Amino acid sequence: MYIVGTSGHIDHGKTSLIRALTGIDCDRLPEEKAREMTIDIGFASIDYPKFGTVGIIDVPGHERFIRNMVVGAWGVDLAILVIAVDDGWMPQTEDHFRVLMLLGVERIVVALNKIDAADEEMISFVSAEVEERMADTRYAGCDIVRVSAKTGDGVAELKEVLLANLRKLARAADARKPYLFVDRVFASKGYGTIVTGTLKNGRFNEDDPVLILPLMREVRVKKIESHHSALEEGVPSQRTALNISGVTVEEIGRGDIVTGKNFFTRSADVVVRVRLLEKKAELKNNTGMEMLVGTTALKGKLILLDDEDRGEEERVLRIKFDVPWFFYPGQRFIITHPGGFRIIGGGEVLLPDYLSAGGRRNVRRHLPVFSKYTRDEFVLFIVAVRRAVAWSWIVTVFPENERAVERVIESLIERGAVVRAGDFLLEGSFHAEALARVAETIAGSIGPNLREIADKTGLDMDICRVVLPAVIKKHRIVEKDGRFFGGDSITVDALPDEKKAVLDTLRGRGLEGAELDKSADEAEKRNLGDLIRLGFAVSLDGNIVLHREVYDELRQKVMALFDDKDRISIAEAKDATSFSRKYIIPLLNRIEGDGLIKRIGDFRMKA
Predict the structure, then answer these.
(1) Is 259 a catalytic residue?
(2) Active-site residue among 6, 15, 38, 287?
(3) Is 15 known to be catalytic?
(4) What is the tens place of the pLDDT at every residue in 178-208?
(5) Which domains does the chain show, CATH number per domain?
(6) Which of 25, 62, 306, 460 is catalytic?
(7) Which candidate among 105, 449, 578, 600 keeps its CA 20 to 30 Å from the CA of 195?
(8) Which pLDDT band, with edges at 50, 70 and 90, does 223 fall under?
């Protein structure tokens, strides 16, 4: 399903045009009837055979009601920009057009209304002006239809043009994470609390448990309706009424969120990308503003991340709110001056919960990851500024389904941009830095435990915990009784009892050593591998393992042969070491690997 919304200057005929299209009067409030002016959003629908029912939202055109205009416009898939030809492009036409662009509305159809009140020259002039205004935007080349809501001329054509554009829209996303920004709440006799809004990103079914934000209460969907028709399930981009149990009309209001699988992050402070409407507008630190997001209006302050305002049209800023709200990366919004009359600009959330970002220098340092603002760039930016995030968290904070986010993460891992360590995801360079800091701390201490490593490195304990396996694998480090030993502090006494027992057995085997491929004991093989890495044992060929002292003694016997010879044969080495031919070749290869000898034909010479 899809949602069509009106937009345009006051008194350009938005409501009357909807009435001509659908037969429905969207002005439902007594004050709207008395003043003949749309104040709040209104609703209608068009039934297209073989296509389905399309919801229509009518919005007010007066500048004092820009909040209500955004409430109606945020979930629109296709907008009708209504322009009266006897007025042309007016201030609120511009404001509404910019709102549609800033909210990322996919398509626009322009309705040149009141053609009954203008001649051909005026109509052509306004049409040319519209084309010029659209020329450098994503809506260049959009359909422009001449209509008269009063006489009905062009209405049928407009209806068909809308259908043609609806068919070109991308399919409504269904990520199985449904949410609905509430725009109306009322009590229905015999049913209880009813909330309405535009359902996005998934489906609601009867008897589904849903979460109310910011109430943080789980309630149940009793019944679902759309355009007065009962449904078993609500579908994405559909006007939806939910009859919910477990909450009263006094506890929920416009702006609240009904969500199935919650992916919103509660935030008192966010990092955003903002496109300012005035390119040269001066922006001062701590400027008061209102953010219009979804169907709610939030008061807060714009905070500069740079030391000075350079007058750029597009800025990355912080927004600090008077009261925390709920956000997701990529969420669109509009910013107005306090009171909601004048639009400052709009944009999208880059990072919910700025307080986890490590300061403005850290945010600015990682902004270059953005170029096209793709989902992989969002994921990389969030991981980079937070340095490390839990895998279970990062896959849940986006509106996309978790598998889609996991595929993004997997591609970043393949590129080396991020590294998975245990349950955490770390930015690549930070992962390398964390490894180095932990290794240095262990090498410079005598048996620090995890808490002491965290304190000395300045890293979170969870980060130290998840990088330690990689540090141990890469460096000569051993763990015993919760303490970590490296460098000169690694002694036989520092070994865990299990490894010490394997080492003693290996020493007792002498020249026989151990052959990994003949051992069925996986624990023994694992311990032998650790002893080789720690330097207490030596692998000759990846299979034959000797105690370090045994190997050193054999190597010394081989090298002593060069005291009175320039070269030695395999047989001479075999006699000197009492090794079988099976073992002597791997031994000589290992000594050669140590850089002490080199092979010349069937002989060995000192390197």
Answers:
(1) no
(2) 15
(3) yes
(4) 999 999 999 988 889 999 999 999 999 999 9
(5) 3-166 (3.40.50.300), 179-259 (2.40.30.10), 275-356 (2.40.30.10), 357-494 (1.10.10.10), 499-606 (1.10.10.10)
(6) 62
(7) 105
(8) very high
